[in-house]
Every structure is written in C-alpha cells, then in structure tokens.
C-alpha cells in the first residue's frame, strides 16, 4: 500500500508547480492533467491517441482525488483507503492504454522519480 501512495504522490508532485497558479477549480485541474500528461509523454513516447486517453485518465484521477480530499477531510483513514482505490484504478487503466514497452518505461520513470522524492 505504501508503494501506491508513493506512486500517487509522484503523480501529484509531477503537477505541483501548477498548484501555485492563480487559477482554481476546473481550470487548475485541467492544467495539472495536461502537465502530467506531457511529462508522462516525454518519458514514455505516447502516440496521439494514447496522449488523449492518458490526459483524460489524468483528469479523472485528479478530479477524483480533489473530491476525496473534500469529502473525507475529517477522516484520514477513509481518505487513505479511497486514495489507494483511485491509484489502483489509475494504474490498471494506464496498463490498458500503454503498450508493454511503454509500461516498462512508465514504471521505471515512476520508480526513479519516487526514489528521488524519498530522499
């Protein structure tokens, strides 16, 4: 479970620079999803179709995370459980979008980024 939190943290940290932007709400989530998708695309070399699907998936994940944070702000245990579910579904959907060699590159990029963020 700790690994899934690290992966979710990685995905959210990839878009952290946009979190300080002036825009709030849907525009901010959309910008963060686009930034995350671009960063993934630079590491994994997505086709146009994959880029569109990954961006949609990132948008869904970021929206779900924001909703969970609002809904379970006072219940950290439930929040952790729900975040783990979102992460599991995200990883499953990514595996369905990416080709095997891309999935390998994605996992390597994730583990490298996660290892750097732990220090």
Comma- or semicolon-separated keywords:
6 helices; mainly alpha; 119 residues; 0% strand; single chain
Short description:
By secondary structure, this protein is mainly α. The chain has helices at 2-14, 16-19, 26-44, 48-71, 76-97, 100-118.
Verbal overview:
Helix content is 85%, strand content 0%. The protein is mainly α and 119 residues long. Residues 13-23 have low confidence and may be disordered. It has six helices and no strands. The chain is globular. Helix 4 (48-71) packs antiparallel against helix 5 (76-97). The protein has one domain. The chain has helices at 2-14, 16-19, 26-44, 48-71, 76-97, 100-118.
Write the layout of secondary structure elements.
Blueprint (H helix, E strand, L loop, with lengths): L1 H13 L1 H4 L6 H19 L3 H24 L4 H22 L2 H19 L1
Considering DSSP H and I runs of 4 or more, what fraction of the residues is helical?
over 70%
Rounded to an integer in angstroms, the radius of gyration calculated over CA atoms is: 14 Å
Put simply, the count of helices is 6
**Sheet of most strands:** none
Termini distance? Answer: 19 Å
Overall form: globular
Number of domains: 1
Task: Specify the structural class.
Answer: mainly alpha
Are there runs of 5+ residues with pLDDT below 50, and where?
Answer: 13-23
**N-to-C series of helices and strands:** HHHHHH
Q: How many β-strand stretches?
A: 0
Instruction: Provide mean pLDDT, rounded.
Output: 82
Strand content: under 5%
Keywords: Signal
Signal peptide: 1-22
């Amino acid at each position: 479970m700790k690994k899934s939190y690290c992966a979710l943290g990685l995905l959210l940290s990839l878009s952290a620079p946009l979190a300080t932007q002036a825009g709030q709400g849907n525009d901010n989530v959309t910008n963060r999803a686009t930034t995350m998708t671009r960063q993934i695309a630079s590491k994994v070399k997505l086709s146009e179709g994959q880029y569109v699907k990954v961006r949609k998936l990132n948008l869904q994940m970021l929206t779900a995370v924001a909703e969970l944070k609002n809904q379970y702000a006072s219940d950290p245990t439930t929040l952790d459980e729900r975040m783990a579910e979102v992460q599991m579904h995200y990883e499953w959907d990514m595996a369905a979008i990416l080709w095997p060699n891309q999935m390998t590159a994605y996992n390597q990029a994730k583990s490298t980024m996660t290892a750097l963020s732990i220090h």
